[in-house]
Write a structure and sequence with these properties.
single chain; 207 residues; alpha/beta; TIM Barrel; 7 helices; 8 strands; 36% helix; 17% strand
Length: 207
């Protein structure tokens, strides 16, 4: 079982590793569901931790439909994350008609190479996240999809998560999210059949 802890400070990251996290997703502004962290925080966290650090690349809060200048900013942020020593990149872009923005996603994924890329919960905004998995299979470099199956919680979305797993096959790992804690992770594992999980409290409280 792999536990990815979502953190927004160096202190949280250090505590998460101490508590048994296998991987970190590093963000800022979790009240906005996670934005790109500062270069300083990226460098500090990547230096201090011995476990992989996945860096969120998200230009602003709100929806996941980005203007050209925002995509340009995300390109710069990916370069900073690579220089800081990130183990991988986390991003998610949609089109105005609520599909995966394959064009810009492919550009950013290629820029992130050779780092692996996780497509985050933007996929849960789609009418059917399974369709998003099919689109992402066409983009080399996407190694994970973070999802709660289009629902608020992994428990509610378990059936859809299983469908996404089937479509993703061995090409892409479905990283299960959605109110997963150290207390319910085994239940969610049984419901979804997965072995990789993501959460704010996945290794307990980090305060």
């Amino acid at each position: 079982m792999i536990k990815e802890a979502c953190v927004e400070t160096l202190q949280e990251a250090i505590l998460a590793e101490k508590n048994g996290a296998d991987r970190i997703e590093l963000c800022s502004h979790l009240e906005l569901d996670g934005l790109t962290p500062s270069m300083e925080l990226m460098e500090q966290t990547c230096t201090k931790l011995s476990i992989p650090v996945m860096v969120m690349i998200r230009a602003r809060g709100g929806n996941f439909v980005y203007a050209e200048e925002e995509v340009s900013r995300m390109k710069q942020e990916i370069e900073l994350a690579k220089k800081a020593g990130a183990s991988g990149i986390v991003l998610g872009l949609l089109t105005s008609d609520n599909k995966i923005d394959v064009h810009n996603t492919r550009i950013l994924v290629n820029l992130a190479a050779p780092l692996p890329v996780t497509f985050h919960k933007a996929i849960d905004e789609l009418a059917n996240p399974v369709d998003g998995v099919k689109q992402l299979l066409a983009i080399d470099g996407i190694t994970r999809i973070l999802t709660s199956g289009g629902e608020k919680t992994a428990k509610q979305g378990a059936k859809k998560i299983r469908e996404m797993i089937q479509v993703a096959g061995k090409r892409i790992t479905i990283l299960v999210a959605g109110k997963i804690t150290s207390e319910n992770i085994h239940e969610i594992q049984t419901l979804t059949g997965r072995h990789e999980f993501h959460g704010r409290r996945i290794v307990g409280e980090l305060t």
